[in-house]
Amino acid sequence: MELDYTSEIAVVEGDLRRAEIDKIIARPMEEKPGKKYLIALTISSGALLIGALCIGITLFLGVGTWGNNQPVGWAFGIVNFVFWIGIGHAGTLISAILFLLRQKWRTGIARFAEAMTIFAVMCAGLFPIIHTGRPWLAGYLTPYPNQHGLWVNFISPLVWDVFAVSTYFTISLLFWYVGLIPDFAILRDRTVSKIKKTIYSVFSLGWRHSNRHWQHYEKAYMILAGISTPLVLSVHSIVSFDFATSVLPGWHTTIFPPYFVAGAIFSGFAMVVTVMIIVRKVFDMEQIITLNHLDRMNKIMLATGMMVGYAYAMELFIAWYSGSEFEQFAFINRVFGPYAWAYWIMVSCNVFIPQLFWFRKIRRSVPIMFVIVIFVNVGMWFERFVIIVSSLHRDFLPSSWGYYTPTLIDLGILLGSFGLFFTLVLLFAKTLPVISMSEVKAVSKGAQPSHIGVHHEQ
Amino acid sequence: MSNNKNLYGVTALFDNADEIINAAREVAKAGYKNFDVNTPYPVHGMDRAMGLKRSMVGFVTTFLGFSGTAFILLFAFWTMSIDYPMVIGGKPFFSFPAFIPITFETTVLLGGVSTVIGLLAMFASLPSNNHPLHDTDYMKAVSADKYGIVIEADDTNFDEIEVTGFLQKLGGKKIHSINKPVKENYPVLQPRFITFLIVVALLVSALTYITLNKVVYIEPFNWMTEQDKVTAQEKSVFYADAFGMRKPVEGTVAKGYLPYPYKGQLNPVETLPNPLLPTKEVLELGKKKYLAFCSPCHGTFADGDSHLRGQFPNPPTLHSQRGRDFSDGMIYHIMVNGQNIMPSYESQTTSEERWAIVHYIRALQRAKNARLTDLEEVKKEPVVNAE
To answer: N or C, where is chain A less crowded by C-beta within 10 Å?
Structure first.
């Protein structure tokens, strides 16, 4: 394989004219949905309905319908919460951190990844709210003046969670919308339908691609990227504080924040690649979401996967090195105890299988990559399961040890969260530009002035 | 200046980024101030070519972000240390390290939201869907892949013919004059439509009210205040006599109850002896109960000087010969039975408390009628607390 390292690889494959970029990206919105799309939507909304039914049963009969028991008081509710929050992190990483690092290749996938962030945070937010048992009292989590004269406890990690997740959702949504404004303007000027034009006009806010606006827009976009970067790192750190600030062996470790953040990026990238592979195939976007994109994301997965592997090893090492018999027991129990099966699924999916990405051929083979990222998704879900359930089920008192098995309702709600996520993704892919038109145009060939024969006055 | 008052400006289109940046530079150099460049994406170097000052969006972020920091720190301090201080996890009321997460999140939230609002509302003056450029071929072209420049009619140097010629010279294509849009009448603001809306709103409210309150009454969520139990003063539907609270079974004796054999007799021939000894504890109990129940009428020192200022007839003093001659049992009897207009105090005091009151009254009587020989007794007592 001959590689030319002297020039950057083109972000957009081939010599697409800029009007054609619009055409390719806007095509799913302008055409009638195909058969494949409708089948996919039926499956995902079916899963969503099952989840809604299970949530309805939970609300009617109570949280007792779940498998949670006395030693394992935190189970699927929190496992799924941490899993979905983690999925969301890849979106912000791609849109904010890669933007600050001037990685132009992010333009092809940023919009989609940001949308996935928003949908994943929605799925995540669902779980703690229904886990409270009385979700209509969720307003108690916000500090508001009330007749009880009470305030929330600002030094509780659970309240930090509320602040972190709601801030994360708000900022992600704004970031996403700000990116969409110029595209709404493009769609407004493309469409011939009067209804669509009205909708696009409202959402475009009357954007007219004026350079006097672009100037502030670019600045604001950079600021949002700048504040989203520490935000995304803080969110999963704070999620990890839910565990790390407790005194339970297996949770009470200082490695948790970086370990959780690396895991979040790892799982998020796996989910982005999973969805990307499907979308570029279904909507014929191979020229914009290129193999180079997938290759680069696989490289990031290889790196973060090894960080996660390092964290697993370091947890075991510290358990031994600490000399605390409770710590040591917690980890021996994790690796060889009743939940050893979950532990080994986690290690093989997250550490061993991604090692295949060392090979360039595998990184660039769509079918193999698809299988690997599915394994990573499964493995990362099991990581949260292992951390939460295997630490809780055998605590200090052997008389209160137990075993956790999820009920059908638990599994139904998990399925429902995937249904919600994919339904939203599918609706998004059909109604909004899945790739930022203005950003892709800006990085296409000949988009920027050559400055040939122009005197630079500095 | 132009003689067409309705004119917004003159537009020209260019084919590539090099041309537009050159055109923008020339227009700025020619002294035009009110002109704009419309490009499908931000073109590098355009700000300098147009002679724009740097963007001030960052100041909004900084100012409001740090306002968020200050607000949440003060708020957390006030709630956790002043309004409702509670010791949690052995931490100080103002535990700064534990406030860092929320401080950071609030800073980011306020900074981010204000950046977006500032960008759209302050710096870009959006939303503005009635701008003259909307719905023109010019706008459609720059939305797709062309690069446009517009010189506005309110510029001091503007002259329609001159500007058109200038843009032609720069290589602009499709040069058009854009007029300001005719003021639109919105059909949604017509009185007939608004009346229709009001009627619909009233109808929906009325129907909802009738459905929810008259047809199907759904109890609103009441936070468990309504429960299937009989509360005080409530009628019981279960018992025939409709009393929710039941009387005890006949012959039930309360714990600690002792029957009093002379109850109801006006002048009992014999009375009970005092079962208690006048110890310090008994006298203290008697004093407490005397001050609570007896002193309002009989006075603090049993002189018959009521505290009630004539709202209830004053009783006689307890230091009279008759009062001093009463046996212990007779005083007890009066407390149980009442005398003249004095009611019974049986329900307010226990038997033990009544005997203790008797001892306290004896102590008061003795103190008001002290004999010289009592001094001998006092002298015999050891001085416990000589100051």
So the answer is: C
More confident residue, B111 or A437: B111
Determine, for residues A160 and B105 on separate chains, whether the beta-carbon distance falls below 8 Å. yes
Residue of A nearest to B143 (CA): A186
> Is residue A120 within 8 Å of residue A176, measured between CB atoms?
no
A228/B50 CB distance under 8 A: no
Environment class of B332 (CB within 10 Å of its CB; exposed 0-12, middle 13-18, buried 19+): buried
| Alpha-carbon distances, residue B66 vs A2, A173, A378, B100, B275 (angstroms) | 52, 22, 41, 13, 78
Residue A247 confidence (pLDDT): 87
Which one of B26, B109, B130, B140 makes the best mutation probe of the A interface by having the most chain A beta carbons within 10 Å?
Answer: B109
Residue of B nearest to A134 (CA): B223
| Residue of B40, B98, B108 with shortest CB distance to A438 | B40
Quickly count: other Cβ atoms within 10 Å of residue A124's Cβ: 25
Place of tokens 């090195």: A321
CA B145 to chain centre: 55
Give the mutation candidate from A186, A197, A208 for the B interface (greatest B CB count, under 10 A): A208
- A47-77 pLDDT, tens digit per residue, is 999 999 999 999 888 888 999 988 898 889 8
- In this predicted structure, the answer to whether residue B198 has a pLDDT above a threshold of 90 is yes
For residue A71, which phi and psi values (nearest 5 degrees)?
-70, -35
Average pLDDT over residues B60-77: 93
pLDDT for A1 equals 42
Which chain A residues are closer than 8 Å to B52 by Cβ? 211-212, 215
For A441, name the nearest residue in chain B, comparing CA atoms only: B41
**Residue B102 to residue A149, Cβ atoms within 8 A:** no
Contact B41 A439 (CB under 8 A): yes
Q: What is the mean pLDDT of residues B101-119?
A: 93
- Determine the residue among B56, B108, B110, B137 to mutate to test chain A binding: the one whose Cβ has the most chain A Cβ atoms within 10 Å: B108
Whether B240 shows a pLDDT value over 80: the answer reads yes
Two tokens, residue A148: 């009880």
The verdict on a CB contact (< 8 Å) between B39 and A211 is yes
CB contact under 8 A, A205 and B133: no
Q: Does the pLDDT of residue B1 top 50, yes or no?
A: no
> How far is it, in rounded angstroms, from Cα A451 to Cα B314?
112
Could you tell me the pLDDT band of residue A241, with boundaries at 50, 70 and 90?
very high
Instruction: Kindly report the number of other CB atoms within 10 A of residue A233's CB atom.
Output: 19
More confident residue, A29 or A178: A178
What are the residue boundaries of the structural domains of chain A, listed by start?
A: 44-439
Strands B7-14, B35-38: pairing is: unpaired
User: Is 50 exceeded by the pLDDT of residue B19?
Assistant: yes
A132, A203, A290, B142, B355 from B41: Cα distances, Å? 47, 18, 22, 9, 100
Confidence of residue B3 (pLDDT cuts 50, 70, 90): low
* B143/A444: higher pLDDT: B143
Indicate whether A279 pLDDT > 70.
yes
Instruction: Name the residue ranges covered by the structural domains of chain B.
Output: 1-184, 187-252, 280-372
- Residue B30: what pLDDT? 86
CATH topology of domain B280-372: Cytochrome Bc1 Complex; Chain D, domain 2 (1.10.760)
Neighbouring residues of A363: CB distance < 8 A, sequence distance ≥ 6:
A294, A295, A298, A299, A357, A369
Residue carrying structure tokens 């719905």: B135
Residues of B in contact with A18 (CB under 8 A): 40, 144-145
Give the model's confidence band at B358: pLDDT under 50 very low, under 70 low, under 90 confident, else very high. Answer: very high
Give the integer Cα–Cα distance in Å for A155 and A151: 11
Q: Which residues contact B323 (CB under 8 A, 6 or more apart)?
A: B316, B317, B365
Partners of residue B339 on adjacent β-strands:
B342
